[in-house]
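Z., the sequence and structure:
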Amino acid sequence: MSDGATKRKTASTGFHFLAGLGSGCTTAFLLQPADLLKTRVQQSRSSTLSQALRTILDGPSPIRQLWRGTTPSVIRTGFGSALYFGMLNSMRTYAAKLPTIPVGGVGGVAGGPAVLEVKSSSSVLPKLGNLANGATGALARVAAGFVMNPVTVLKVRYESSYYAYTSLLGAGRDILAKEGFRGFFAGFGATAVRDAPYAGLYVLVYEQAKARLHTVAPIIEGVAPVPSKYGALGTNFLSGVIAAVSATTLTNPFDAIKTRLQLMPAKYGNMIKAGKMMLREEGVRSMFDGLSLRIGRKALSSALAWTVYEELIRRAQRAAVV
């Protein structure tokens, strides 16, 4: 029995990684044009969304250009999501076992093992309190971001019109020759400052929104209240949109600074210097360049990623029970 339980636990951990990989790759490919346009708008205050789009559409192979940088985006988002969801699940499972951390946002009890309340909620994840939700989300995102930062730098520079890179290999060689290994971690400080509060806020708002929306979701009568299949999907997706819009708006200044640092590290130096220069030369609005694009992309990508991820995990758990 113990062997079977161990095998199931190992398979479950691996499936969390694979579910995150699948959801991340899918959303990265579908939403790459929005990510590319965001990079073009943020690289210069003089560039607007309409101008950036017109430049691409008027150039050669516009459709191909809109998906420029798809390979590093899929690698970064796919494996980044896999690492994030895998680590997040492990952290949440561990945290849920600690007696000092409240379990269950609504009607939960303190302490005890993690409970995957498939029957009473649209979520299949361990239930934690607000503080633990925020902390585990932030830690998992920063750890995944550090591992994937070299890919992020390649992606941003390959998408930008500042560089004439014809291949990812050429971009990597150029960065290594001119900036050394450190160049692959340009902007990580701003990325961490952006991602930690974003992920923490996202998980916190996401779980709270699901708890609130669950009370008005379609209910099928039975031994215990069970959200219908489409009710659970709708609840997870809408909760993802609400969480993404809230967290994206609050953390956009760090995203704008991060983009400048990754594009022009020699000019902007560090996060504080970059922020001061942007405010002095371009005003407060520069901190919110690309916000509408980022909200649109984040709202869709995060909602899709979390909905697909939770649905895959739910199906795997039901198959394991059967």
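Residues 229-263 form the longest helix (35 residues). The CA atoms of residues 104 and 144 lie 26 Å apart.

Let me know what you think.
H.
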